[in-house]
Amino acid sequence: MKTFALHFLCTLSLIGSLLAQDAKPTVLITGANRGLGLEFAKQFAAKGYHVIGTARSPEKATELKATGSEVVKLDVTSEQDIADLAESLQGRRLDILLNNAGYFGPTLSVGKGKANIHNLTREEMLNCFKVNTMGPIFITQALLPNLKRSKSPKIINISTRSSQLSVRPGKAWGYSVSKTGVNMVTWNLHGELTKKGFVVISLAPGHNKTDMGTQRAKLTPQESIGKMIPLIENLTKKDSGKFWYYDGSILPW
C-alpha cells in the first residue's frame, strides 16, 4: 500500500511539473551549450520561458543546466537523435523553434593558407550543409506536431550577412554557401506554413565575440541577443518570410 501511494504521489508530481511547464511559453534552442545558443537560453529563461536546450553531450553542458533549462541530447546531423528528440517531446507544445546550431567549416586548410576553390574538400563542405542547411529542415519536420500546438508558432533560422548574394565574396566557403541554403529553407517553410499560422524568418545575429566569431568581433552575445529576443517576441504573420538583422532592420536576400 505504501509503495502504491508513493508511485501515485510521484505521478502527481510529474503531472504537476508538466502542467507548470505547459503554462509557460516554450522555446527550443539547438546548439545551446555555448556561444549564442547559451546566451539565448540565459535570456529566454530570465524572461520566464521554459527553455529546452539541446547539446551533443548533455553531461558536459554544465552552464546550460545552470540556466534552469531542460537539457536534451541532439546532434542535428543524426537521424536517430532527431527521432529520439521528437519522441521525448511527444504531446508537448512548442512556441518557438530556434535553429541555432551551426558549423563554420573550412576557412583554413592546413599548410595551404585560406580556403579557396583550389583547396576546398567535399567532406568539409558537406559537413556545413549537414549542420547549417539540412539540420533546420529535419529538426523542423520532426517538431511540427509540437509547434502546431501553439497559438502562434515561430521558426527562427539563424543565418548570417555573409549569406547575402549582394555582399562582397568572402573566404568562408562552407559557412556562407550553406547559410544561403538555409535562407531558401526559410523561404520554402514560409510558403508552406504561414497559411497555417506560422511565422518563419531568417535572422542574422551580427558578428559576435564567440568561439566562432572570435574576439575581433564588435558585438557581445549579451548585446545582440538582448535585441533579438524582443524582435522574435513581436513578430507577426506579416513579418514572415523575411531576412532580419539583429537590430530589427530587414536585409536583402
From TrEMBL:
Pfam families: adh_short. SUPFAM superfamilies: NAD(P)-binding Rossmann-fold domains (SSF51735). InterPro entries: NAD(P)-bd_dom_sf (IPR036291), Sc_DH/Rdtase_CS (IPR020904), SDR_enzymes (IPR052184), SDR_fam (IPR002347). GO terms for molecular function: oxidoreductase activity, acting on the CH-OH group of donors, NAD or NADP as acceptor. Coiled coil: none annotated. Keywords: Signal. Residues 1-20 form the signal peptide. Belongs to the short-chain dehydrogenases/reductases (SDR) family. PANTHER family: SHORT CHAIN DEHYDROGENASE, SHORT-CHAIN DEHYDROGENASE/REDUCTASE SDR. This is SDR family oxidoreductase. It comes from Oceaniferula flava. The lineage of its organism: Bacteria, Pseudomonadati, Verrucomicrobiota, Verrucomicrobiia, Verrucomicrobiales.
